[in-house]
Recover the amino acids of this structure.
């Protein structure tokens, strides 16, 4: 592995054989031939290993189908272009990828074993020139000693070598969201600076959840600890992505006062994406005044 964002774990898809119509000659486009694809995704699998939950990792079955579709549904002169298109898709899943495209039936009038193109690509979305990005995290808990759990989670994030907690909001006591009978939540918001890509930052947060006893049994149910990644980047340069593991910006942030109130405390005004376009956070908060939330100013 190379590069500053290389992850110690990897997901590898090897020997994916797909019929495609790529090549500079007309008969290659007309008759087609088999291409063999190898993909390596450098990404942490810690959260999936800890929870044994498929949704916490990249689904390699879906990856295979997506890559096969790129081979089957396009026609390129060069396998260099094909490799680049596959890498671009894979970068929507993680920040460091390797792609090899083999063309074992290339029209070469000599005996050969293989022709292959290998590309390695990195992504540093929404970061500055140093690769550091700002992110907003919202933390919540309503089981056990919620306040102490939140303090420990903040400290754990700040101890990570690639994450710096830049600012922490007040505590907010909030009514549970989602219609499940349970105790009130204690919430706070964090602004962090990180060199981790968004998916790796999420994995770190989920690892801290697991360390604090988090299980995922009931949607919107009681939580020992919940850490949500709300935004990665700034309102003028934020990452927008939607995968099985991560959607950014958080698709329901604009509906939740417990997310917006700590955020507004930390940054003042910022633009928040909604289904109707970006809107000022203060304007959205004013429309959520029926939600039960109280800032804890002392103690």
């Amino acid at each position: 592995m190379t590069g500053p964002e290389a992850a110690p774990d990897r997901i590898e898809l090897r020997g994916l054989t797909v019929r495609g119509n790529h090549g500079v000659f007309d008969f290659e486009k007309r008759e087609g031939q088999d291409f063999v694809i190898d993909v390596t995704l450098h990404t942490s699998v810690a959260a999936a290993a800890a929870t044994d939950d498929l949704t916490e990792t990249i689904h390699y079955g879906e990856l295979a189908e997506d890559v096969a579709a790129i081979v089957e549904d396009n026609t390129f002169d060069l396998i260099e272009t094909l490799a680049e298109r596959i890498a671009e898709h894979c970068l929507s899943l993680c920040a460091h990828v390797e792609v090899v495209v083999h063309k074992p039936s290339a029209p070469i009038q000599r005996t050969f074993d293989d022709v292959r193109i290998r590309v390695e690509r990195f992504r540093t979305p929404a970061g500055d020139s140093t690769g550091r990005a700002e992110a907003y995290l919202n933390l919540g808990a309503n089981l056990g000693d919620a306040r102490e759990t939140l303090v420990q989670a903040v400290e754990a994030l700040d101890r990570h070598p690639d994450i710096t907690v830049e600012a922490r909001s007040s505590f907010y006591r909030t009514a549970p969201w989602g219609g499940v009978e349970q105790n009130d939540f204690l919430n706070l918001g964090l602004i962090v600076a990180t060199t981790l890509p968004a998916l790796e930052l999420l994995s770190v947060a989920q690892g801290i959840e697991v360390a604090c006893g988090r299980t995922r049994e009931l949607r919107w149910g009681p939580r020992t600890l919940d850490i949500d990644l709300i935004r990665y980047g700034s309102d003028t340069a934020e990452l927008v992505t939607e995968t099985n593991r991560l959607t950014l910006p958080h698709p329901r942030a604009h509906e939740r006062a417990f997310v917006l109130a700590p955020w507004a405390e930390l940054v003042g005004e910022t633009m928040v994406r909604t289904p109707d376009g970006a809107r000022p956070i203060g304007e959205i908060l004013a429309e959520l005044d029926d939600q039960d939330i109280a800032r804890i100013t002392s103690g």
Summary: The chain has eight helices and 15 strands.
